[in-house]
């Protein structure tokens, strides 16, 4: 008998049914203790427990990615229909002579004054919107014959791309709506917002570079372990079947 066992365990193993019933009637809490003892993980079950924890972590991570992707879908949709600078309230003609243009109500003001930047803005925002939709679709439907862990890697990479384009959309929006010192120039912003955007970009790319580097090293180590495992199995098979 092990020292971790209770009197209830001992009575049940030795076949003393009357004493077992007496203990259960006098001390009902001992059943809870016995169940807790029985559920104590052994050394053989520890790998299974670690596997269960990994699956729970992967599930929670997937749920977090789905929540983030859903929020980004709504955010990018609102940014597309409400661009910086707003839209024309009513139909109007801008310019004079041959250069006049008719602006329809509901169209973007930024598209009129900064057409090239508006195309870049909508392109960055569209990448974020489509990427978020793809994440939601993959998370909901899944991919046949693809492990959930590999799917989480794919979703994580897509999220990196989405966040990068969101940062680009933000930077372009701030540059376009920031006033200039002379009211005309696009580069002579006041305050000097260009330096702020440049510093933010350096911080973002630095943090993203560190994260990508760490995950790349982790992926390479995983590949080395897998290759080593397959080589070991192949060597054992060769020794067992080819060497007489």
Describe the protein's topology:
Layout: H1 7-14, H2 17-26, H3 29-38, H4 46-81, E1 92-94, E2 101-103, H5 109-113, H6 115-141, H7 148-177, H8 193-241
Helix pairs in contact: 1-2, 4-6, 4-7, 6-7, 7-8
Mean pLDDT: 77
Q: How would a textbook summarize the main sheet? A: 2 strands, antiparallel
Tally of DSSP helical segments: 8
How many distinct beta strands?
A: 2
Structure description:
It contains eight helices and two strands. The chain is mostly helical and 244 residues long. It has a two-stranded antiparallel sheet. A hairpin with a 6-residue loop joins β1 (92-94) and β2. The mean pLDDT is 77.
Explain briefly what this protein structure is.
This protein has 244 residues and is mostly helical.
Record keyword descriptors for this entry.
8 helices, mainly alpha, 72% helix, elongated, single chain, two-stranded antiparallel sheet, 244 residues
């Amino acid at each position: 008998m092990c020292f971790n066992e209770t009197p209830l365990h001992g009575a049940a193993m030795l076949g003393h049914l009357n004493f077992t019933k007496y203990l259960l009637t006098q001390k009902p809490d001992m059943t809870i203790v016995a169940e807790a003892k029985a559920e104590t993980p052994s050394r053989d079950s520890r790998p299974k427990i670690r596997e269960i924890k990994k699956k729970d972590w992967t599930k929670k991570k997937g749920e977090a990615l789905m929540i983030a992707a859903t929020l980004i879908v709504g955010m990018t949709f609102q940014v597309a229909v409400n661009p910086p600078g707003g839209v024309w309230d009513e139909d109007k003609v801008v310019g004079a002579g041959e250069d006049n243009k008719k602006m329809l109500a509901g169209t973007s003001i930024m598209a009129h004054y900064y057409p090239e930047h508006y195309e870049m803005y909508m392109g960055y925002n569209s990448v974020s919107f489509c990427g978020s939709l793809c994440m939601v679709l993959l998370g909901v439907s899944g991919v046949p014959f693809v492990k959930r862990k590999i799917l989480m890697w794919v979703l994580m990479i897509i999220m990196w791309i989405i966040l990068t384009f969101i940062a680009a959309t933000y930077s372009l929006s701030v540059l376009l709506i920031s006033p200039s010192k002379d009211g005309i120039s696009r580069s002579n912003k006041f305050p000097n917002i260009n330096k702020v955007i440049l510093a933010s970009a350096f911080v973002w790319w630095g943090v993203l570079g560190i994260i990508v580097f760490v995950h790349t090293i982790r992926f390479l180590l995983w590949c080395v372990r897998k290759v080593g495992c397959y080589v070991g199995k192949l060597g054992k098979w060769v020794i067992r079947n080819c060497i007489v």
